[in-house]
Amino acid sequence: MRTTTPVLLIGAIAWLLLGCQVADNTKQAVNSVSRHIASQTHSRSWLLVDQRTDTLSVMVGVKPLKVFDNVAFGRNGVGHKRKEGDGITPLGTYHIRWVNPNSRFKLFFGLDYPTAQQARQAFAQGRISRADYQAIVHADQTHGIPPQKTPLGGEIGIHGVGHANGRAHLEKDWTQGCIALTDQQIDELANYIHMGMKVVIR
Predict the structure, then answer these.
(1) Quick one: pLDDT at residue 44?
(2) Beta-carbon count within 10 A of 122 CB
(3) Contact indicator for 152, 84 with CB cutoff of 8 Å
(4) Helices 116-124 and 130-141: crossing angle, nearest 10°?
(5) Which residues face 56 on adjacent strands?
(6) Distance between CA 21 and CA 24 in Å, rounded?
(7) Is the pLDDT of residue 185 over 80?
(8) Do 45 and 192 form a contact (C-beta atoms < 8 A)?
């Protein structure tokens, strides 16, 4: 009996070590799958901004993954933005093209407004120059940032409250044309944002 005890002990230790290795391998496999699923979800996600419900939803396909409420819009509401300084949040489909982590509104996720379609209409109506029109179209074709200082306005994005009036945020639409969330909400939204992410404002 005594001569077999070390053998049994060694076997038990080996079995435990093998069990740990299998557990580690299983854990690594699960983590790998989880990262893959998260990556796939991340790449398929988009933002839906709805003026009717004052919400911003992180969508995956047609299903909301996360909904932020009490969203604020431009001081003159949501509509067809025509010029700089009109206080209107533009309707349409856009994409996240840049991030300003040091914005006075805490975080700023910039959209590719104005789009080529908006520039085309404005040029046809004589509201922008040919040079502005061509620059905006080029940015659209190259997935870049369109000129932000044309008569159509710019610097439209999603941001927090930052140095603005937090109480006013809860009471009325107050931005110059952007979409505003609370600072806590914008920090949470940052976890879902990726460059090129589609943003639909309706």
Answers:
(1) 86
(2) 21
(3) yes
(4) 160
(5) 49, 68
(6) 5
(7) yes
(8) yes
pTM of the model as a whole: 0.78
* Residue 182 covered by a domain: yes
Q: What is the H or E stretch that residue 40 is in?
A: helix 5-44
**Does the residue 15 lie in any domain?**
no
Residue 23 and residue 175 in contact, taking contact as beta carbons nearer than 8 Å: no
Q: How many domains does one find in the chain?
A: 1
Mean pLDDT of 159-186: 92
Can you tell me the distance from the alpha carbon of 114 to that of 100, in angstroms, rounded to the nearest whole number? 18
In a domain, 66, yes or no: yes
Q: Which residues lie across from 45 on neighbouring strands?
A: 60
Which amino acid is present at 60? V
Which residue is it, tokens 């396909």?
Answer: 61
Give percent helix, percent strand, percent coil of the chain, each to the nearest 5: 35, 25, 40
User: Can you tell me the distance from the alpha carbon of 57 to that of 190, in angstroms, rounded to the nearest whole number?
Assistant: 13
Which one has a higher pLDDT value, 153 or 21?
153
Count of beta carbons in the 10 Å neighbourhood of residue 153? 21
147 has pLDDT over 90: yes
CA distance 161 to 180: 7
Report the pLDDT averaged over residues 155-180.
Answer: 92
pLDDT confidence of 186, banded at 50, 70, 90? very high
CATH classification of the domain holding 162: 2.40.440.10
Range of the domain at 89: 45-201
Q: Given this model, what pLDDT does residue 36 score? A: 41
The answer to whether residue 150 sits within a structural domain is yes
